[in-house]
Amino acid sequence: MQRLVAFGIAAALSWTAASLAGPSGPTAAFKAWSAACDNTRSCTAIGFTENAAEPGPHLFITRGAGAGDAPKVEIGLGYNDGVDALKAGDRVEIAIDGPAPLRFTADIRRGPESYDWPEVVFPAGRTDAFLAALLQGRRMTVSHAGQILGATSLEGASASLRWVDDQQKRAGTVTALVARGPRPASSVPAAPEQPVVRLAPAVSQSDLPSPPAALLGRADVRECASNYEEEEMRGPRASRLSATEYLWHVPCGAGAYNFNALFIIARADGSGARSPGFDAMPEEPDHLINASYDPKTRILESFAKGRGVGDCGLEARWAWDGRAFQLIHMRRMDECLGVTSEHWPVLWRARTRN
Questions:
Q1: Residues 159 and 228 in one domain
Q2: CATH classification at residue 137
Q3: Secondary structure, 3-state, the chain
Q4: pLDDT grade, residue 14 (50/70/90)?
Q5: Beta pairing class for 72-76 and 43-47
Q6: Does the pLDDT of residue 185 top 50, yes or no?
Q7: Same domain flag for 140 and 230
Q8: Around Cβ 325, how many Cβ atoms within 10 Å?
Q9: CB 104 within 8 A of CB 125
Q10: How confident is the model over 271-311, as pLDDT tens digits?
Q11: Which of 72, 71, 275, 37 is nearest to 176 (CA)?
């Protein structure tokens, strides 16, 4: 299975799952499957394609931590020549082998853009039978007009879902998917509440200052500027955070699909400089990839691509609370196998309020 590739900016900016720290839920891997949970014990199990050279299909099983939360099944098709030819409304056949084989047809949905990868519209009422077959099968195939478009390995599915049962404290209860027992649903503990981040008030962005000498003279800012021949790409730009502090966004290098930036919090004259300390990126806590800050929402976003197609990497959002940027959402995909970012497992989530 192809692991996460380097970001292509510089070796120092590449990262692996093991290097991540800060707030994060648990993750695990079982043969062709992986699983992850966030801080509210909402979990995702993913079954990957058998053919890494032509990614897809993938299986996504998500479930909230509440006793009454039902599992949700989704099937993504990734991309290959056969999949790319599918149109919205086309019919595909889903088949699971094994002692309890299952076959059914489903529609395809596809976004309006040519680069939107098709997905299966999973039929209502099929979830229980699908999961029962999955736990006994070895392979799921997706076919169109008699042609197999791809296969998902089911090796590791049972162990992955058993791990989810354990993380959600369902083991031994009637709500478990694999580790089922006689205890009632009422014995499943309530899901943890999401942390709440109070947003700082929005402030005017008029009359923003030019980069001060104290900022331009910093060694890290000078190093960033040296990565660009074009002068217009070098200069820090400011966003006002409060009456006295600014977020300075310093372009710091670019690859084919990733743009690195250094972030510094400082006053207009460059004094009082401090690190934002992005807690999802411990090796480079002042740097983010493909990042932007929206002063209206007070949200800073980053989407670090593992490769140009954007099927692996790290996506995160931070909220400005008046003192620091607090992580409010993080999802990550370590395998570069055609999984679109909306299906990456969520590892951290928090709510914001004004």
A1: no
A2: 2.60.40.1880
A3: CCCCCCCCCCHHHCCCHHHCCCCCCCEEEECCEEEEECCCCCEEEEECECCCCCCCCEEEEEECCCCCCCCEEEEECCCCHHHHCCCCCCEEEEEECCCCCEEEEEEEECCCCCCCCCEEECCCCCHHHHHHHHCCCCEEEEEECCEEEEEEECCCHHHHHHHHHHHCCCCCECCCCCCCCCECHHHCCCCCCCCEEECCCCCCCCCCCCCCHHHHCCHHHHHHHCCCCCHHHCCCEEEECCCCCEEEEEEEEECCCCEEEEEEEECCCCCCCECCCCCCCCCCCCEEECEEEECCCCEEEEEEECCCCCCCEEEEEEEECCCCEEEEEEEEECCCCCCCHHHCCEEEECEEEC
A4: very low
A5: unpaired
A6: yes
A7: no
A8: 23
A9: no
A10: 999 999 786 555 677 899 999 999 999 999 999 999 988 89
A11: 71
The two three-digit tokens of residue 299, written as one number: 């949200």
Place of tokens 């897809």: 56
Q: 173 with 258, same domain?
A: no
Q: Structural domain of residue 327, as residue ranges?
A: 196-353
Bridge partners of 264, per DSSP, are: 248
Q: Tokens at residue 349, please?
A: 């989530």
pTM to 2 decimal places: 0.89
- Burial of residue 42 (number of CB atoms within 10 Å: 0-12, 13-18, 19+): buried
CA distance 8 to 259: 10
For residue 201, tell me if it sits in a domain.
yes
